[in-house]
Design goal:
The strands form three sheets. This protein has a four-stranded mixed sheet with strand order 4-5-7-6. The chain has a three-stranded antiparallel sheet with strand order 1-3-2. The chain contains nine helices and nine strands. The longest helix has 14 residues. By secondary structure, the chain is an alpha+beta fold. The chain folds into two domains: about 60 residues, Arc Repressor Mutant, subunit A; about 130 residues, no CATH class.
Length: about 200
């Protein structure tokens, strides 16, 4: 089986999968008894030709949306200002903000030419998100109550307008349930703002 056949089969795989890793391509090549080292070169050439986008190290997609970082670092959810924007509560443009319990470096990463902010969160605080429709994808996004708590946890500024919006939108029973694992300082701060 020559290189051209590999390329065609891999392009078909790319068309069927929104996001995939180098490992996926290596497995595809291995199933054809092909040299798996060829995966890197093939993916590099497809990126160069504009048929593919490199999301982050080892992950690729035909889509060019930085939100796809949520598929690359798992488990995770889109949070903070980015979640507010997706819930229609924030009109300012925002970077992608990813929250994960994994021990990855907290930093700003370049994802498809834009900044994505990665935050670590203790495992006991990793909850309160749903998969929402985002174009023809489903992405994990913190719900309104968890977004509110996370803004306080990460010491983010909330103006009066945003605070008023939260007061109207928050499900108080869910908020109370979500606050259970948090320390007294966070609980008190949440209650002070919500009153």
């Amino acid at each position: 089986m020559g290189k051209i056949k590999y390329t065609r089969e891999i392009e078909e795989f790319i068309d069927k999968n929104k996001i995939f890793s180098v490992k996926d391509i290596k497995m595809l090549l291995a199933s054809k008894n092909a040299n798996t080292d060829y995966a890197y070169l093939l993916l590099h050439n497809l990126v160069k030709k504009g048929k593919l986008n490199r999301i982050t190290k080892g992950y690729y997609s035909r889509y060019d949306d930085p939100m796809l970082i949520a598929y690359c670092i798992k488990p995770s959810y889109i949070g903070l200002e980015n979640a507010l924007s997706l819930h229609g509560l924030w009109e300012q443009e925002t970077n992608v903000v990813l929250i994960t319990p994994r021990k990855v470096r907290q930093n700003i990463r370049k994802v498809l030419g834009t900044n994505a902010v990665i935050h670590n969160i203790p495992g006991e605080y990793f909850f309160g998100y749903n998969y929402i429709d985002y174009y023809d994808l489903k992405i994990p996004v913190s719900d309104i109550e968890k977004t509110f708590i996370d803004l306080i946890f990460y010491k983010k500024y909330m103006d009066k307008e945003l605070t008023r919006t939260f007061k109207k939108k928050i499900d108080s029973k869910r908020l109370k349930r979500y606050l259970k694992p948090y320390n007294k300082k966070i609980k008190d701060k949440v209650r002070d703002i919500i009153r």
